[in-house]
Prior knowledge:
Rossmann fold
Amino acid sequence: MPGRSVIVTSAARGVGEACARRFAQNGDRLILADEDEEAGQALLDDLRGGGAEAAFVHADVSNRLDVHNIIAEALDAYNRIDVLAHTMMAQFSAPFLETSEEDFQAIIAANLHGAFLINQATAKHFVKRREENDGGGRPGAIINVGSVEAVTPSPDRVAFAASQGGVHQLTKAVALALSQYGVRVNMVGVGAIKGELAKGAARDQEREATPLNRIGDPEEAAEVVFFLASEAASYVTGQCVYVDGGRLAFNGVQASETDGA
């Protein structure tokens, strides 16, 4: 029996790449989507060389036509979609008073609008398939990858934090909207992860703010995405699982101490 049909967005690097490799290891069939065509094709060739069944779509998930092309490629290649692992997180840092309207809109478009488009397009397929099968068959799962900044924002990352808070709430609302169809929707919120951070002093600062005193590996986040896509998580929906080395717990302690001072 063939593996699941899995869409991985922003698949060419970081957590997205780790997710693609983890699903491929399981024998799942992949649709890889990324704006970086060269890196995406390189990953595709590497996965196929290892025996994986995969296809690549050059796409920007904030573009409705590109999202349509991702869904169309998955259905053309595998005739179904079982899992969406949406890992797109466009980064942006600037002091709040220097953040332009254009900067803010660009990050909201990339992170929040893109999440809405790909979640909705995938969900429409899940619902249509369930209705055609009279409620039977595999219902599907969506996992959005976001950041701890959905909860603990940085003053120099206002646009990014706003987009992540939006993705967090989007995930919960979509989970409620799709629960009647058995579709599960969850989020993985990452802290400091290799490949997603700046180098040098900023990286050291992130490590020092993490109780486990290290930067996480993309594979550690990918394992949680894989779990949430599996039947082992069949009763988990509308949740955000944080893979952050204790970052939120640490920040919570700091906040409590400050409030009580």
